[in-house]
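My current task is to audit a protein record that another person submitted. What it holds is a sequence and that sequence's fold in token form. Thanks in advance; the entry in question is below.
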Amino acid sequence: MFFSLPYLLSYFLQTLYGMADLFIIGQFEGVASTTAVSIGSQVMHMTTVMIVGLAMGATVTIGRAVGAENKLRAARLIGNTVTLFMAGSVVLAAVLVGLVDPIVRIVSTPEQAVAGTRTYLIICFIGVPCITAYNIMASIFRGLGDSRSPMYFIAAGLCLAVVNEKEYILVTLGAPGNHATEQTNIMDAVQVYRRLEKKK
């Protein structure tokens, strides 16, 4: 219970990034921008769910090695996981950016929201390696038995995203202001990495 609850809260907080985008954009923009963020958030939620699901496998394998007190195997699994997922995330980001126009069409985006949705998704897709980095390092923490640290970092990142995004949208006046969220994804990944380094 004490291990699973922080994990559930971390995942819940991660899904709130899209809601934060909607909350802020809805205060300053019209229907087109709100629709763009709403559609883009759904696409990104699906992408994030896939990444979280794959990262869960790393938690299990690393946890088994740690439980067996096989430090060499745990270290090898951590190294292989980071290398595989980060290389894959770069490829995935490039593919998604290249397919952004078909994706916008597939989700039946209204004509007035196409431009905003496209821009929103491109920014989000470029940030996929950052989302992957956070989730992979969080999965390593959980495999090592620590599910609280990732929760603290994602909570802090969400608060920062709301503050930063409000400022960015005031400047950009549109859905592209979402790059504040990507900035906090980078910060989440960096903070988790720094904490992981201290655990070595």
